Amino acid sequence: AAEDSRGGVLEASGTVEIKFREPALRTAMHRLDSTLIKLDAAVKEETTADKQQEIKDQIKTRERKLMPVYKQIAVEFASLHDTPGRMKAKGAISEIIEWET
After folding, report:
1. DSSP letter string over the chain?
2. Distance CA 97, CA 74 (A)
3. Contact 20, 74 (CB under 8 A)
4. Taking the model in full, what pTM does it have?
5. Per-residue pLDDT tens for 17-31?
6. How far apart are alpha carbons 96 and 2 in whole angstroms?
7. Is 96 exposed, middle or buried (0-12, 13-18, 19+ CB in 10 A)?
8. Residue 8 neighbours by CB under 8 Å, 6+ apart
């Protein structure tokens, strides 16, 4: 395969729509974002329903703010798995060739 070729049937954005849906991205956010981790802990510690709802609203706002960034990251991640180097490592191609015109 040429150095700049792609082997996927789907574009990276199509792969993301199938593999990395919003619930999976939210799970990643709650695992990686320090603000969401703190808010998750705060909602568990809080005993009053009003305060819990206020924290849950903050969580939803933070998720909405981060979603475009996490979608972009997911598209880049999917794109990186479709490179000749990765395809060779997985045995999908035998070698990478330099394409001359």
Report:
1. -BTT----SS-HHHHHHHHS-HHHHHHHHHHH-HHHHHHHHHHHH--SHHHHHHHHHHHHHHHHHHHHHHHHHHHHHHHHTTSHHHHHHTTSSS--B----
2. 28
3. yes
4. 0.74
5. 888 899 999 999 999
6. 6
7. middle
8. 15, 82
